[in-house]
């Protein structure tokens, strides 16, 4: 019997925002308490009637052109966004969205930022205490770990962010384009760390990436969405071929 880790049933999510807002007019409206129904509100479907199932222990890649809703889907699975309709079921409460630089504060040191970011990613203070030496060693920042983050280069920030994020080991791991950080040597090291997390067959992984080689090497299956809609879901090679054909004819 299949053990389903993630099940989406006709999930819909739309973004709503006001177009052509004039600050002066908004202040006048607010002052005179005018009815706000005359604003021009635009609605964009980020996910539309999306259904799929992911088995426990599988690694599933999510592909699609820019703006197709891939990151939104991860945020829905992580509980950051709630669908407007439909249902999303998870077999575990242990879910983490691996993002780079969550909660970073430029005025604080790299060391202090490890605690802030780690707590935001769901680690406890005790867990961070136990992992902090490994995080610092992996980042290769040395004594710079005690310097304010504002003195770091973008590469240094990326290395620190990845080193923190890669310490999260949930039952369901969501990864959004985080493998291309640092110089070539660090990229290889970070890729190896991701392989360690992904190849743990007790863990279910959903991976968003524009790198076909990454998808081919790491994913059991691929989910393809365009403009928030289901386009295909199946074996990696098969879906990637269909996607390539679609993009060539687009």
Helices and strands in order, then pairings?
Elements: E1 4-18, H1 23-32, E2 41-55, E3 59-63, H2 70-78, E4 85-90, E5 95-98, H3 110-120, H4 125-139, H5 154-165, E6 172-176, H6 184-198, E7 204-208, H7 212-218, E8 221-226, E9 229-235, H8 236-249
Parallel strand pairs: 3-7, 3-8, 5-6, 6-7
Antiparallel strand pairs: 1-2, 1-4, 8-9
Helix pairs in contact: 3-4, 3-5, 4-5
- Overall structural domain count: 2
CATH class of the largest domain: Alpha Beta
CATH homology superfamily of the largest domain? P-loop containing nucleotide triphosphate hydrolases
Total beta strands: 9
- Across the major sheet, the strand order is 5-6-7-3-8-9
Distance N to C terminus: 40 Å
Mean pLDDT: 87
CATH topology of the largest domain: Rossmann fold
Order of helices and strands: EHEEHEEHHHEHEHEEH
CA radius of gyration is 21 Å
Largest sheet: 6 strands, mixed
| Low-confidence runs | none
The portion of residues assigned to helices is 25-40%
């Amino acid at each position: 019997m299949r053990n389903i880790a993630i099940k989406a049933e006709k999930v819909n999510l739309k973004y709503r925002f006001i177009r052509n807002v004039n600050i002066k007019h908004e202040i006048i409206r607010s002052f005179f308490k005018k009815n706000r129904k005359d604003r021009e509100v635009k609605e964009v479907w980020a996910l539309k009637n999306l259904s799929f199932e992911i088995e426990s222990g599988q690694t599933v890649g999510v592909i699609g052109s820019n703006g197709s809703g891939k990151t939104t889907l991860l945020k829905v699975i992580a509980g950051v966004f709630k669908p407007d309709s439909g249902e999303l079921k998870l077999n575990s409460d242990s879910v983490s969205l691996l993002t780079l630089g969550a909660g970073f504060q430029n005025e604080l040191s790299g060391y202090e930022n490890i605690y802030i970011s780690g707590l935001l990613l769901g680690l406890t203070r005790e867990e961070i205490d136990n992992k902090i030496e490994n995080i610092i060693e992996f980042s290769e920042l040395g004594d710079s770990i005690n310097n304010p983050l504002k003195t770091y280069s973008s590469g240094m920030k990326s290395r620190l962010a990845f080193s923190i994020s890669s310490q999260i080991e949930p039952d369901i791991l969501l990864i959004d384009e985080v493998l291309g950080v640092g110089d070539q040597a660090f990229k290889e090291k970070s890729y190896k760390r991701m392989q360690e997390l992904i190849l743990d067959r007790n863990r279910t992984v959903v991976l968003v990436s524009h790198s076909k080689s990454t998808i081919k090497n790491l994913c059991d299956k691929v989910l393809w969405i365009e403009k928030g809609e289901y386009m295909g879901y199946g074996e990696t090679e098969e879906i990637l071929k269909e996607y390539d054909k679609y993009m060539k004819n687009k």
